[in-house]
Amino acid sequence: MKCAVIYYSLSGNTAKTAKAVQKRFGADMFFIEPEKAYGAFIPSVARVVKEKLTKKEPALKTEPANFSAYDIVFVGFPVWAGTVPQFMQNYLKACDLSGKRVIPFATARGSGKDSSLKTVKALLPESSVTDYLFTSMVEKPDVAAWLDKIAK
Ligand SMILES: Cc1cc2nc3c(=O)[nH]c(=O)nc-3n(C[C@H](O)[C@H](O)[C@H](O)COP(=O)(O)O)c2cc1C
Known about the structure:
Elements lengths: L2 E5 L5 H13 L2 E4 L9 H14 L17 E7 L7 H9 L6 E7 L5 H11 L4 E2 L3 E3 L7 H9 L1
Parallel strand pairs: 1-2, 1-3, 3-4, 4-5, 4-6
Helix pairs in contact: 1-5
């Protein structure tokens, strides 16, 4: 089973799950970067709010890749402003993941669980989006059990 992990992580939480996937499946890693990196928490929140209000989308540094060789594409992101960070949304839109099994995983302080999944599904209508994993300050899923289920 050939796996890829498309992910972004600013402060390391999402990266932990991404690395667990890599370790388990020997997945190829695709770290997605915006052209202008986000910095500390407060300035990043301020920037994201401003980008939303002004509808100014952050440009991508990472070029879309070819995922045709993969059986499963994991998509990991931190919840920002209640959903998938805008530049990640743009990256997903730019890639062809049609017909792929896509497994999203998100980390958050607490909000955005359902809206994030809804966003991923809306962005990838031709993918089979399954086995979503959401981690927050109160929800701590068993990552090993999640990986076991996927490996079956
Ligand atoms: C710009 C920004 C916006 C955020 N917005 C939300 C949010 O809407 N809801 C939430 O629960 N957490 C929010 N968070 C917290 C992150 O989702 C959470 O800390 C996540 O685990 C960080 O993952 P990372 O370490 O992989 O970057 C936000 C964090 C940042 C930096």
